């Protein structure tokens, strides 16, 4: 019954059988959670040649940490890394354009960028705000990138997708996740309403493998 409930809540599955013969996919953050499951699903259909870029790597942490360049980690990992990788890949001279770029987004409540405090070091640190801000930046980037590739007359399709709330190790650095009471009392309850990684990658697979208009967020 629990499985049926989670299955029902997780939304439609990807049921197509698109052949990935001769295609290659680049997926950031593929050693756990959604990235790992997505790689598994694509590998079933794959015969390698890169046509897809999935900007999936992500971090969620309550503590302020910085990259080696001194950039706040949510901004660095969730947004800037993908911004740089994508721009480097789409402007490689003499190479085939990427077929589709999919950015893995989050339905965050905060929909603004604090340009006065991009590095989150001026006001008291709140990891949820830093996470939301970085994912909102990725959302805005998705929209702008779609316009940019169109202006560059590239055939690349750019989309964003919300995977929903998925039972992965993403919140492992949040205080609640390491709290004994939370783990014993609430986590089993939450589990009922969370998608499994398999269910979580279905919307990503659908956006990746079905025909979708560029600039669309799913
Ligand atoms: N789970 C959800 O409910 C949910 C909801 C909305 C959106 N998302 C988004 O989905 C994406 C995948 O998250 P997930 O839920 O699958 O979490 P996850 O299991 O923690 O996977 C995150 C992946 O990102 C990688 N990563 C983290 N920092 C990195 C870095 N500096 N460089 C390269 N890779 C790095 C991780 O590698 P390591 O394990 O080596 O750190 C891991 O493979 C994230 O962008 C997240 O924001 C998740």
From TrEMBL:
InterPro entries noted in UniProt: NAD(P)-bd_dom_sf, Sc_DH/Rdtase_CS, SDR_fam
GO molecular function: oxidoreductase activity
Keyword Repressor attached: no
Keywords: Oxidoreductase
Family recorded in the similarity comment: Belongs to the short-chain dehydrogenases/reductases (SDR) family.
Record-given protein name: Retinol dehydrogenase 13-like
Origin species: Octopus sinensis (East Asian common octopus)
């Amino acid at each position: 019954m629990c499985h049926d409930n989670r299955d029902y809540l997780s939304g439609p599955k990807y049921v197509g059988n698109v052949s990935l013969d001769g295609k290659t996919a680049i997926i950031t953050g593929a050693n756990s959670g959604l990235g790992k499951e997505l790689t598994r699903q694509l590998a079933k259909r794959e015969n390698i040649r890169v046509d897809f870029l999935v900007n999936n790597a992500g971090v969620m942490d309550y503590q302020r940490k910085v990259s080696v360049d001194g950039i706040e980690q949510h901004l660095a990992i969730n947004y800037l890394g993908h911004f740089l990788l994508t721009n480097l890949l789409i402007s490689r001279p003499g190479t085939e354009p990427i077929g589709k770029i999919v950015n893995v987004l989050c339905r965050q409540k905060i929909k603004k960028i604090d340009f006065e405090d991009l590095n989150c070091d001026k006001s008291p640190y709140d990891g949820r705000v830093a996470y939301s801000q970085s994912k909102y930046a990725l959302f805005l980037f998705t929209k702008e990138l779609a316009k940019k590739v169109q202006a560059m007359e590239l055939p690349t399709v750019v989309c964003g997708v919300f995977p929903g709330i998925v039972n992965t190790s993403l919140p492992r650095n949040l205080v609640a996740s390491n709290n004994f009471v939370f783990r014993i009392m609430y986590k089993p309850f939450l589990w009922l309403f969370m998608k499994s990684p398999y269910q979580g990658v279905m919307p990503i697979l659908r956006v990746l493998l079905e025909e979708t208009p560029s600039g669309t967020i799913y």
